[in-house]
Model the fold of this input.
Amino acid sequence: MKIAILGGDGFCGWPAALHLSNQGHEITIVDNLSRRRIDDELGAQSLTPIRPLDERLNAWQELSGRTITHVDLDVAQDYDGLLAFLQDQGPDAVVHFAEQRAAPYSMKNARTKRYTVDNNVNATHNLLAAIVEADRDVHVVHLGTMGVYGYGTAGMKIPEGYLDVEIPHEGQQNIETQILYPTNPGSIYHMTKSLDQLLFAFYAKNDRVRITDLHQGIIWGTNTAETLKDERLINRFDYDGDYGTVLNRFLMQAAVGYPLTVHGTGGQTRAFIHVQDMVRCVEIALNNPPAVGDRVMILNQMTETHRVRDLAELVGRISGATVEMVPNPRQESAENDLHVTNDTFLDLGLQPTTLSEGLLLEVEETARRYAHRADLAKIPATSLWNRRTHAGIPASLTGADHDGAEAGSASSTAAGN
Ligand code: NAD
Ligand code: USQ
Done:
């Protein structure tokens, strides 16, 4: 297949590009390198020494004999460039990773909120509009999030995107139908993924675009079979308070001797998937597209659920790290239960890589190898979900009792807006 990977220089996109190239697909990465500029803006680099994209691509060519090309294009801003790309290259499929993906970054201040909405919603809409204008049959595989379902306790197993409902119909038989599972995003970032869902539903219905939306859980791990082949192919490892995700943060914190930062009671239960399974899921999704005219195919891309404080306890036990309960900078339920259906990927052959001590220690070992690159001052999560102290919101939620809180800044962004 000819596959365009939007966001192919990122944490998920890079290993996915290598994996799909290794399978013999013709890969083009479309990426404006905004994530690298956000590293500079935040003064927080990947723990692992990721190489410039052209060096990565040359190394891959040298090692595998396969060529991956790069088009430097802002999918959200350069509609004409995107349209010309689709017309010239004619990809069979587009994997869309090109969004601002950190919930804390999206909640920092008005500027980062606006950037996240503008970037993510425009990127998705530009892609869909360009596919229609180019008049091509392109399968869109989008990386969405489990977070669109919300993180309360649903009281049921969360289905794959659609909810069976029965609507009372006065004087007649009740109507049985399926609706998009009601969204309940917990951050501006997660909200953009909810907005993406509506765009997908519309374009699948109106223009018969074939779309798969992968509702992905939190990725953990850093290496895949391909990124391990050479240090020049190394994947990014985010550990800072904005981009670092919880389990990788805990493993990095254990490696550098920093107490594991559990937010609040650590009672949040979340869905997880290892980075190696993520690339496999993307491959499976590409090989099993919906038919033209089908509704959006929504798959839950996760393999297990864990409560945050249990993860901290596990990492503490295997590494000897201490755990520190810190005030929660986010607004989220103190405790939630989470049960998720992931039958489609299992039926299509995914064999989950579940959390094991060996794999956890492997990630910690990677973090230990690059511990000298860590800036411990970047570890605390300082982006607060709410500062509106006059709106009747308790101090425990506004961060008024939160140490090390940052001021809401409004400086210009390095991400290009
Ligand atoms: P990332 O920030 O590492 O990568 C995103 C890439 O997209 C970056 O290389 C960035 O430069 C590029 N990009 C962003 N906006 C762009 C634009 N307008 N034009 C061109 N390129 C652009 O993020 P990631 O962790 O690789 O996540 C990829 C996708 O997967 C995101 O959409 C995210 O929501 C989703 N996801 C990630 C996780 C996770 O744990 N990392 C979990 C669930 C879902
Ligand atoms: N948390 C801690 N301590 C930390 C960091 C996080 O207790 O040091 C807690 C958070 O408060 C939250 C949970 O861990 O309750 C998860 O936080 P996270 O930063 O690991 O994950 P999240 O913000 O949800 O976002 C990440 C990715 C995002 C993706 C999402 C999938 O950044 O792109 O969409 O995971 S999901 O969580 O399933 O919605």
Remarks:
- The pocket of sulfoquinovose-uridine-C1,5'-diphosphate (ligand 2) is lined by residues 101-103, 145-147, 217-218, 245-246, 249, 261-263, 266, 268, 270-271, 308, 328, 330, 332, 381 (CB under 6 Å).
- The first helix runs from residue 13 to 22.
